[in-house]
Amino acid sequence: MQRLQKVIAHAGVASRRKAEDYIVQGRVKVNGEVVKELGVQVTSKDKIEVDQVPIYQEEPVYFMFYKPREVISAVSDDKNRPVVTDYFTEIKERIYPVGRLDYNTSGLLLLTNDGDVSQKLTHPKHEVDKVYVAKVSGVATNKKLMPVTKQMTIEGKKVAPAKFAILSTDTQTQKSIVQLTIHEGRNHQVKNMLKACGLPVEKLKRERYGHLTLENLKPGDYRELHKREINRLLEDSKN
After folding, report:
1. Phi/psi class of residue 171: alpha, beta or left (left: φ > 0; alpha: ψ in -120 to 50)?
2. What's the pLDDT tens digit per position in 144-157?
3. Separation of alpha carbons 239 and 111, rounded Å
4. 77 labelled catalytic
5. Which member of 46, 78, 86, 102 is catalytic?
6. What is the pLDDT of residues 40-82, one digit of tens each?
7. Which GO CC terms are listed, alphabetically (predicted)?
8. Backbone angles phi, psi at 48, to 5 degrees
9. Which of 2, 45, 71, 168 is the most exposed place for a label (fewest CB within 10 A)?
């Protein structure tokens, strides 16, 4: 038996916390009866509905995806733009992205139907390193990038210190390639941090998430992750 909110999360309907909200709001039925109490135990034989829609108790699956540029990190888009799940048409489980990458940012993105894991990996208290490589306008120097190694205030919010490495500079074209390692995931965080250093981003790619790298994947490719790889991600994060 499993807790109802955990089953809803594993079905890919919502995170466990959001599933708890659904239950309290009376939006969940078990075997035709509305359930508003948290902690109710269910089995695979129970019929569970959220907003009148039956859910299926899927086995958790995990994927690493090389997101191309100009693709939305979502399962649908009201402007009919490409979304990440367009690349997973052969996957029967209802998966969704863990966090997001901006529309014009490429690179490593995780997708799963496991709401628990998604919540743990995206919660601010869990520090999973994310490594980005950016092509920026301007000649990067240690002095210019030093502010990212301290707590910065971006758009009125404090962001944790980051690590940087200057991979290359070109004084003739006034371009540089910079690597930035962060463990948060605020909207446009890397772009805003580099812009604050006077190095606006022209192109951005996430190359690593925890211990995971893109390996031999090409844009649009994905591979399924082993549970041990997910466990290592969770172990590497600070609880």
Report:
1. alpha
2. 999 999 999 988 89
3. 22
4. no
5. 102
6. 999 878 999 999 988 876 778 999 999 999 999 999 999 999 9
7. cytosol
8. -115, 135
9. 45
